[in-house]
Structures are given as structure tokens and as C-alpha cells.
Amino acid sequence: MALSMKQMSLIVAFFGLLSFILGIIAENKKPASGTPITGKDVVICNYPADPTVALGSLSVVFLVATTVTGCYSLFYPYKGKSVPQSVLFRSTSFAVFFNVALFSSGLALTLLLWPTITEQLHLSGNVHHNLNTDCPTAKTGLLGGGAFVSLDSALFWLVSLMLADNAREDHFDDSEEGLKTGV
User: Does the keyword Nucleotide-binding apply (predicted)?
Assistant: First the structure.
């Protein structure tokens, strides 16, 4: 089954929106801190059950799916016709938006992974020998920021896809005109 450009753009938008929503929910469900329980020469941090790590991980998975699908959709041979990459990158606006989409995807990945991994480390390493610990959690705001950058990257992939479509049309129009004129 061959996919159309419209279907690919819907897949990119769906994964990007899902990554955004899961990142926002993860940010909202993250506890402010744990409850310190003092023992003999240690403090054990008791954290409430929350889905932050799972939601953050799912947000990362859907961001990666958005990025892979977005990149794949740019070079996919729609209607069995492929376009050389050099034709696409001849367009300055396509090259700029492609690079911005890649950069924003990387930034979103960083902003989502950092607090997700940190939160998992806090949950698994909850025994502290410093009696003055206050049972920290991951930095507040990073998951939410990563979610918004994830949404931005999906939008940049969609703009890149539109620009790739324009470059494809121009390429095939030029090819057809060359055949008609015999050049």
C-alpha cells in the first residue's frame, strides 16, 4: 500500500501531538518532592506513585517516531516517482526548515530525556547518606518545555514536507516541459 503525502503528514502530526500531550501530562503529574524518612545514618526518600517516567518515556518514543516519519516522508517516492535529494536541497527554504526541524527534534529529545532519566534516578536511588537531603525530583519545567519543542519540531517537519512537495512539483514540471520541447 503506497502512502500519500497527506497520509504521511497526518502521521507526523499525530505522533507530534501525542508526544506533546504526553509530555505536558508528565510535567503536571510530577511530584514537587518526596517525603524524607530518617533512619540510622540514612534518609530514605518515599516518592508518591506517579506516571512521570512512563509518560516522559512515551513522549520521547513518539518524538522519535515523529522525527523518523518526518524525515522518511520527505524522501519517500510518492506515486512511484522519486526525486534526487540534490533537487530538494536546491531550495534554500527547504534546507533551512529541514535543518531547523532536525535541530528542534534534538533539542526536544534532550529536554524530554533529561528530566525523565533524572526522575528515574531519583526513584531508584532513594537512599541518601546525607541527613540534610530534601528528597529532590527532576527539575520542574523541562518536561513541559520539551513537550512544546516537540510540538514545534512536528510543525517544522510538516512545513518541510510542504516545501518538499513544492520542490517535487517544480522538478516534475521542469522534466515534463523538457520532454515537450525536446530539450
Answer: no
